[in-house]
Amino acid sequence: MNGNNGKAGTEGRTGKSGANTAESVKTLVIHEAVVKKVQKGIPREEILYDLADFFKILGDSTRIRILYALNISEMCVWDLSFVIGISRSAVSHQLKILRQANIVKYRKEGKIVFYSLSDEHIKSFLDNGLEHIEES
Amino acid sequence: MNGNNGKAGTEGRTGKSGANTAESVKTLVIHEAVVKKVQKGIPREEILYDLADFFKILGDSTRIRILYALNISEMCVWDLSFVIGISRSAVSHQLKILRQANIVKYRKEGKIVFYSLSDEHIKSFLDNGLEHIEES
DNA sequence: TCTATATGTGAACATATATTCATATATAGA
DNA sequence: TCTATATATGAATATATGTTCACATATAGA
Questions:
Q1: So what's the architecture of B51-134 in CATH?
Q2: CA of B38 to C1' of D6 (A)
Q3: What element of type H or E holds A86?
Q4: pLDDT by residue (tens digit) across A70-121?
Q5: Chain C, protein-covered positions (CB within 7 A)
Q6: B116 exposed, middle or buried (CB, 10 Å; 0-12, 13-18, 19+)?
Q7: I need a surface site. Which of A117, B14, B61, B88 has the fewest CB within 10 A?
Q8: How far A70 CA sits from the closest chain B CA (Å)?
């Protein structure tokens, strides 16, 4: 779940370069003003990777189904497996990923482990995503 | 970008089954009340797959960087390539995916194609995600 | 029409990853 | 301690997918 971090080198630019007045900028292939503005305003690399990793975890239908199930009620692995229709082993593997990302938490009651969403922030985020999809 | 939709069969359940009174439910491995509540409240399968697909598209660092760049200003392919530090070809491939998902739109001005986020909804969603990550 | 430039895309390759299978661990009760 | 049950996990496999490379397409201007 960390396949995002392969930095890539820049391609050589064949466009004109050199000193540019505010006027001439508009004629360049690279629009310097825009580029500078974006470079200044875009979130830090680390943040962007964290964002991608977070979304990537949500970008799997098994995990999504687990999360929207847990958004309704805490559940044990067995119940999750039953509701989602996938093996308990597969559920367990995905829960591990969700655990490591601090998206779900769990409590033990004897042999049974109950999973739930880790906080209200995740809940509202899931609700937000659902709204977004339902509106399109 | 549609690798989510492999339905999986349910695993055989070895737990006890059959009629259960409200009392006996609590003693089963499968907690029927919870299962029924979740089955009733969980979003439809189609919605869940759409959600997973949407998040999966956001779950790539190249596409995330493109989107958070476009969240600041519309940009042409060349500029995007320069800002993000990845080949124009790779940018173009990713833009195609974002286009097909209606996450970005574009306008042509001569040879140059300017891309931008498709609507305010996407913008607010990206802002939301950023907040979420920055708070953790 | 011919050239230069900006972008788009198919195929190949390398990597990432979700599931299955077998097995391990943990807990409760006899 | 021994058994049954619930969950966890390592390895293997099949599939998915991001980038590169080569080339195609589109537009402007000579």
A1: Orthogonal Bundle (1.10)
A2: 21
A3: none
A4: 999 999 999 999 999 999 999 999 999 999 999 999 999 999 999 999 999 9
A5: 4-11, 15-23, 26-28
A6: middle
A7: B14
A8: 8
